[in-house]
Amino acid sequence: MNDIAFILIVFFLVCASVEPEDGRSQVIPRSEKNEAQQDSQSIEVGLTTATVIIDGTPYRLNEFQPRIQQMLAQKKTEAERVVVVKSQADVPYEHWIAMTEIIERAGGIITLLLEEEQTINLN
């Protein structure tokens, strides 16, 4: 009985380690800089299903790559090349991966804007 339990444990360990990972690795920017300074220098990219918003200006999907390459070519330091990516909930994962790959190939360093903490005043 112990032999069967041992074999099952080994089987599940091997199966768990063979499972392929989804996605890809990300380079996370260093957090040594002042957050306010980094926010003023960074480029904000908002992803929707039909458009990409760069620093508040909407672009069609086919206009995104040349525009982000142009913007990042003007940046000299690593801190200036930080790109904050915001994504709506309905954006497909494949679309998000494609857009972040374009940013990384253009020389951008991606960071994610997670859901911000909000204070609600109930009167």
UniProtKB/TrEMBL annotation:
<dbReference type="GO" id="GO:0005886">
    <property type="term" value="C:plasma membrane"/>
</dbReference>
<protein>
    <recommendedName>
        <fullName>Biopolymer transport protein ExbD/TolR</fullName>
    </recommendedName>
</protein>
<dbReference type="Pfam" id="PF02472">
    <property type="entry name" value="ExbD"/>
</dbReference>
<dbReference type="InterPro" id="IPR003400">
    <property type="entry name" value="ExbD"/>
</dbReference>
<keyword id="KW-0472">Membrane</keyword>
<keyword id="KW-0812">Transmembrane</keyword>
<keyword id="KW-1133">Transmembrane helix</keyword>
<dbReference type="GO" id="GO:0022857">
    <property type="term" value="F:transmembrane transporter activity"/>
</dbReference>
<keyword id="KW-1003">Cell membrane</keyword>
